[in-house]
Amino acid sequence: MNYITGIHHITAIAGSAQQNIDFYTGILGLRLVKKTINFDAPDVYHFYFGDELGRPGTVFTTFPFTGARKGVKGTGELTYTAFSIPKDSLGFWQDRLKKFGITVSDIHTRFGEKLIRFEDHDGMGIELVANDRDDRAGWPYGHIPAAHSIKGFYGATLNLKAKELTEQLLTRHMNYKLIGQEGDRYRYGTEGRPGDIVDIVLDKTGNRGMQSAGTVHHIAFRTANTLTQLGIQEILMQNGYQVTEVRDRNYFKSIYFREPGGVLFEIATDEPGFAIDEDEAHLGELLKLPEWAEPSRKRIEAALTPVTLNLEKYA
C-alpha cells in the first residue's frame, strides 16, 4: 500500500499577520481558505492559503507572530517552497512581482524546467516552477488570469549537511524514490510530478538555520485517511522514529516526527478538508475555532489583531 502520495501542506512562521495575508492572497493570488488559531498557541493566528477549496497539495499555512525577528536560513531546514505555474507564465510573474517591489531572480533551469526565485516580506524562500505536467486548475482569485495562476505546490528543498539517513527515510518508509541529481541537489518523488517533489541540497559546511519569521516550521506529507495514517505511523515507529500520537487538527489528522537531518515532518490525512465548518463559497471569511476553544472566543479574539482581505490593492 502506498501510504504517502506527496506533499499535503507546508507551514511557515511569519511576522505581521496583515502583511502575510496581503502577500499570499494579494500578490500570489492564493485563496485564504481558513482563518483559525494555532492549536498549540491559541493566541496566534493560523492562516491556510491554497486553491479554491484548499485541496491537499496546494495549502501553504502560516503562524504570524507580530514583531517576530527574522529567522536565518541554514542547514536542518526547508529553505525553499516551490509552487507550480503554467509553462509560459514566468514572464507574467516576473513583471507582477517587480510591480510590487519584490526582488526576483533571473530565470534558472533545473532538471530541464525553468523557475524563478524570490522572498516574501519576511524573507521566506519561494520558487515558481514553470511546467506543462500539472493538470490542476489553480485559483486566480479574480485578479490574476487563470492562465497564469498558481496550481499548488511543485516541491520543497531541504538544506541538509548529509543526505543518507533522510534518503533512507524517504525511500524505504515513505514511498519516495530518487529520480535525479544535479550537482549537490538530489531529487525525490513518489511519482516525480508537481506536488510530490522533495529536493535535498547538500550543504556540508553550512551553519544551522534559526527558526523565526521567514522560515518553515514543518512540511506535511499526504496520506489518504486515518487507516493509512496508522499504517505509516506503525512503520515509522518500528524503524525507530519518535512519532507522536494522532492529533486532531479539525481539517485533517496529523502525526509528527523529526527526520534525521532536523526538519520536522508531519503526515496529514486528506480527510475531511476545509469545508466542514464553512460553506465553500465563504471559506476563510470568519475566525473559526476548534470546539475546545469556543468558550475562550472573546479572549482569543481580543488578543488577535484584526485582518482584512485587500485584493483591490493588488489588481
TrEMBL record:
Q: Which organism is it from?
A: Algoriphagus sanaruensis
What this protein is called in its record is Diguanylate cyclase
Q: Which CDD domains match?
A: PcpA_C_like
What sequence ranges are listed for the domain VOC?
6-131, 152-270
- Cited Pfam families: Glyoxalase
* Domain of life (superkingdom): Bacteria
Classification via PROSITE patterns? VOC (PS51819)
